[in-house]
C-alpha cells in the first residue's frame, strides 16, 4: 500500500460559475459520502482536516491575502489516502465531488 | 428472603464496595488482603445469620464486621502494621492506632470511581481489564465470568491474577484522576466498560440472566461516572444513551431457545420503551459541548434503530452517521453496516459495487451482507455468498442465522 496526496482545486473567482447555496448544500452531502466511502475501505491515511478558505500568498513582491486574482484555480482542500498504485488512486479520485463543479484533483504518491 | 438468598445478592452489590474502599486505603500492593477481609466478612455473615437470623440492617452489619476485621488484621499482622499502617497514617490526618475506615456513601462512590480508573488501565489487555472489572467492580465470581466467556475457570482465574500482578508491577495508584488527567484516561475507561457491556450483549452464552446482569453492571459503572461532576462528560452520557438503546432490545433479540432474532424480524412490542426514553434523555445531555465522540455517533445510529418504520429519513440519517463514524475511526463492522444503509438509501446495485470494494473476504459478515444484497437481484450469487459465510462463521448461533437467510433466497 502506498500513500497518495489528493489536492482538490477549482475556480473560486469567476462569479457566473459559482454554485448556488442549494448546490453547495448538496455538495456537502456528496463530500461526506465520498469520504465515508473511502473510510469504509480503510483507505484514509490521515484524519480529515479542514483548511481555511482564504489564506495568504507569499511571493517576491510580498504577502497578499487570498482569494487570489492571479490564481485561477485555488486549493479547496486535500486528503491523504492509501492505494496500491496511481491507477487505484485515480479511480478513487474520479468519485470526488469537486469534478462536478468543474474542478480537478491532483494526485501525488508519497515516496 | 432467607440468608441463603440474601447473601449472594448482597455479595454482588456490597463486596465490590467494601473492596474498593479497603483497596484505596491499603494501596494496590495489598489488594489480596482487602479481598480476604471482605470474603471473611461474608463467611461470617453466612455462619452467623443462619444461626441467629438476619440482622435488622444486613448492610450495616457487613460494614461493621468488615471494619472490625480490618482493625483486627491490623493488630495481629506485623507486616500489615509496618507496611500499610505507616502508609495510611502518612496519608491521613489521624494519628494513633485508630485507622479510619470510612464506609459512607460518598467514600464508597469515590473509591469505586478510583477503582474504575485503576482497573481500566491499558497496561493490561482488553480481556484482562474486562475480567478484572467484572470481578472487582461488579462482584462476579470466577465461575460466572468463565461461563460468559465460554471458557474454563482456570483460564479466568489466571487471567485475573496476572492482571492484578501487572497493576502491582506498574505500581498503579488508586486515586481519582485529576481533571486534566481525565481527558487522557477516560477513553480507555469508556472502551473497557463498553466492551464489558458488549460481552453481555453479544455473548453466545445460554445464560440470559447472567448476560443481562453484565449489561446492567456496565450501565451502573457508566452511571457512577455520570454522577461524579468531573467525569460527567458528553461522551459518558453518549455511551449511556447507546447502552440504553441497545438494552431496550434485549428481550426482543433472542427467542426462548437463546437464538438471535435479526433486527428486521424482531417484535417491536417487546422493545423496552422506558429504556428508549432514558436513552433519548441521555442523548440530549450528551449534545452539550463541542466534542463529538464515536459514542455520540453510535448512539445516534442506535436511536434511529429504535424507530421500527423504514422511512427514507431514517436510513439517510443512519448512512450519514456511519459515514462520520468511519471517518472518525475505521472498523470492518461499521464499513459493512454503512454499506447496508447505503443499499437502503441508494439501492442494491450501488451498494453491491461499494461492498465489493471493501476487501473483507475473510469476514463472514461481509459474505452475509453480499448474500442479502444479492437476494432478489442475483439469487445464484446470493446463495454462494451465504455458503461462503456459513463456512467462515465459527459460532453455531452465527451459522443458524446464515442458514436461515440462505433458505429465504428464492430458489434458483
TrEMBL record, chain A:
YCII-related domain mapped to chain residues: 47-103
Pfam families: YCII
Organism superkingdom: Bacteria
Protein family (similarity comment): Belongs to the YciI family.
Protein name per its UniProtKB record: Transcription initiation protein
From TrEMBL, chain B:
Origin: domain of life: Bacteria
Boundaries of every DUF6596 domain copy: 185-284
GO molecular function per UniProt: DNA-binding transcription factor activity
GO biological process, alphabetically ordered: DNA-templated transcription initiation
Domain RNA polymerase sigma-70 region: 10-78
Matching InterPro entries: DUF6596 (IPR046531), RNA_pol_sigma70_r2 (IPR007627), RNA_pol_sigma_r2 (IPR013325)
Protein's recorded name: RNA polymerase subunit sigma
Originating species: Flavobacterium humi
Amino acid at each position: 500500500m502506498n500513500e497518495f496526496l489528493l489536492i482538490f482545486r477549482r475556480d473560486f473567482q469567476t462569479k457566473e460559475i459559482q454554485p448556488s447555496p442549494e448546490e453547495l448544500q448538496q455538495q456537502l452531502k456528496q463530500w461526506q459520502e465520498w469520504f465515508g466511502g473511502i473510510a469504509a475501505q480503510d483507505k484514509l491515511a490521515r484524519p480529515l482536516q479542514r483548511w481555511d478558505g482564504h489564506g495568504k500568498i507569499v511571493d517576491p513582491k510580498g504577502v497578499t491575502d487570498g482569494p487570489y486574482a492571479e490564481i485561477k484555480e485555488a486549493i479547496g482542500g486535500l486528503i491523504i489516502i492509501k492505494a496500491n498504485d496511481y491507477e487505484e488512486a485515480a479511480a478513487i479520485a474520479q468519485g470526488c465531488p469537486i469534478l462536478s463543479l468543474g474542478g480537478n484533483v491532483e494526485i501525488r504518491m508519497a515516496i | 428472603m432467607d440468608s441463603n438468598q440474601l447473601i449472594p445478592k448482597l455479595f454482588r452489590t456490597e463486596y465490590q464496595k467494601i473492596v474498593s474502599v479497603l483497596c484505596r486505603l491499603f494501596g494496590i500492593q495489598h489488594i489480596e488482603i482487602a479481598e480476604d477481609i471482605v470474603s471473611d466478612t461474608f463467611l461470617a455473615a453466612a455462619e452467623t445469620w443462619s444461626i441467629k437470623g438476619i440482622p435488622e440492617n444486613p448492610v450495616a452489619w457487613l460494614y461493621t464486621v468488615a471494619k472490625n476485621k480490618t482493625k483486627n488484621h491490623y493488630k495481629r499482622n506485623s507486616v500489615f502494621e509496618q507496611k500499610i499502617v505507616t502508609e495510611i497514617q502518612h496519608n491521613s490526618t489521624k494519628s494513633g492506632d485508630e485507622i479510619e475506615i470510612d464506609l459512607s456513601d460518598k467514600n464508597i462512590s469515590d473509591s469505586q470511581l478510583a477503582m474504575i480508573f485503576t482497573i481500566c488501565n491499558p497496561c493490561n489487555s482488553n480481556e484482562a481489564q474486562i475480567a478484572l472489572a467484572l470481578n472487582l467492580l461488579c462482584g462476579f465470581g470466577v465461575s460466572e465470568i468463565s461461563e460468559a466467556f465460554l471458557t474454563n475457570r482456570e483460564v479466568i482465574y489466571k487471567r485475573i491474577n496476572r492482571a492484578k500482578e501487572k497493576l502491582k508491577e506498574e505500581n498503579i495508584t488508586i486515586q481519582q484522576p485529576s481533571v486534566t488527567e481525565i481527558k487522557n484516561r477516560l477513553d480507555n475507561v469508556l472502551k473497557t466498560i463498553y466492551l464489558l457491556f458488549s460481552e453481555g450483549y453479544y455473548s453466545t452464552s445460554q445464560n440470559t440472566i447472567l448476560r443481562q446482569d453484565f449489561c446492567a453492571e456496565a450501565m451502573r459503572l457508566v452511571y457512577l461516572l455520570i454522577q461524579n461532576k468531573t467525569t460527567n462528560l458528553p461522551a459518558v452520557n453518549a455511551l449511556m444513551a447507546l447502552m440504553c438503546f441497545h438494552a431496550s432490545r434485549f428481550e426482543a433479540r433472542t427467542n426462548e431457545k437463546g437464538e438471535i432474532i435479526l433486527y428486521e424480524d424482531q417484535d417491536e412490542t417487546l422493545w423496552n420503551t422506558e429504556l428508549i426514553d432514558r436513552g433519548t434523555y441521555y442523548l440530549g445531555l450528551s449534545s452539550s459541548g463541542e466534542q463529538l465522540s464515536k459514542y455520540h455517533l453510535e448512539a445516534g445510529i442506535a436511536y434511529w434503530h429504535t424507530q421500527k418504520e423504514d422511512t427514507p429519513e431514517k436510513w439517510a440519517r443512519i448512512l450519514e452517521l456511519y459515514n462520520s463514524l468511519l471517518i472518525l475511526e475505521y472498523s470492518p463492522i461499521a464499513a459493512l453496516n454503512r454499506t447496508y444503509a447505503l443499499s437502503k438509501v441508494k439501492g442494491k446495485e450501488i451498494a453491491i459495487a461499494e461492498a465489493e470494494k471493501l476487501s473483507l473476504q475473510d469476514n463472514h459478515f461481509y459474505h452475509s451482507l453480499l448474500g442479502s444484497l444479492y437476494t432478489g437481484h442475483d439469487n445464484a450469487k446470493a446463495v454462494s455468498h451465504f455458503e461462503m459465510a456459513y463456512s467462515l462463521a465459527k459460532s453455531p448461533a452465527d451459522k443458524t442465522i446464515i442458514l436461515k437467510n440462505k433458505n429465504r433466497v428464492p430458489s434458483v
